[in-house]
């Protein structure tokens, strides 16, 4: 069983920075990609950034140039560096990964709250 545990959320002023971490445990031998999604109150969960096993990254337009996703394969951890934060970045941030060969499985962390004050 795969488990994802996020950390690093908190309260920050607009223009500030935070770094989220996601520690992954369990079997990830057929890992395809990892990433971050977020969900603000009253809104649907949306993609923030992903990184494939090959290292290809993808970002939502609204975070391009401000957020950076990275992986530490040795530690089995994925990070999200968030700079120039805006109040509209306030949300619960979820770590995500997809694994499996013939059948794909999605896994989610429990989420970490990020609040950006104006």
Structure commentary:
This protein is an all-beta fold and 118 residues long. Helix content is 0%, strand content 57%. The chain has no helices and eleven strands. It has strands at residues 3-7, 10-13, 18-25, 31-39, 46-52, 57-59, 67-72, 77-82, 91-99, 105-108, 112-117. Strands 2, 4, 5, 6, 9, 10 and 11 form a seven-stranded mixed beta sheet that branches. A hairpin with a 5-residue loop joins strand 9 and strand 10 (105-108). It is globular, with a radius of gyration of 14 Å. The mean pLDDT is 94.
Structure keywords:
single chain; 118 residues; mainly beta; seven-stranded mixed β-sheet; four-stranded antiparallel β-sheet; 11 strands; 57% strand
| Topology as a string of helices (H) and strands (E) | EEEEEEEEEEE
Strand content: over 45%
Largest sheet: 7 strands, mixed
Mean pLDDT: 94
User: What global shape is seen?
Assistant: globular
In DSSP terms, counting alpha (H) and pi (I) runs of 4 or more, how many helices?
0
* Poorly predicted sequence stretches spanning 5 or more consecutive residues: none
Helix fraction bin: under 10%
- What's the N-to-C terminus distance? 40 Å
Count of β-strands = 11
Question: What structural class do you assign from the helix and strand content?
Answer: mainly beta
Q: Roughly how many Å is the radius of gyration?
A: 14 Å
């Amino acid at each position: 069983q795969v488990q994802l545990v996020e950390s690093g959320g908190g309260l920050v002023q607009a223009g500030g920075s935070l770094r989220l971490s996601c520690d992954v445990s369990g079997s990830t031998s057929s890992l395809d990609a990892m990433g971050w999604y977020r969900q603000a109150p009253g809104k649907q969960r949306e993609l923030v950034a992903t990184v494939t096993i090959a290292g290809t990254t993808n970002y939502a337009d609204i975070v391009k140039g401000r957020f950076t996703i990275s992986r530490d394969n040795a530690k089995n951890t994925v990070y999200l560096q968030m700079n120039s934060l805006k109040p509209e970045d306030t949300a619960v941030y979820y770590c995500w990964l997809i694994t499996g060969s013939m059948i794909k499985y999605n896994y989610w962390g429990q989420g970490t709250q990020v609040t950006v004050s104006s």
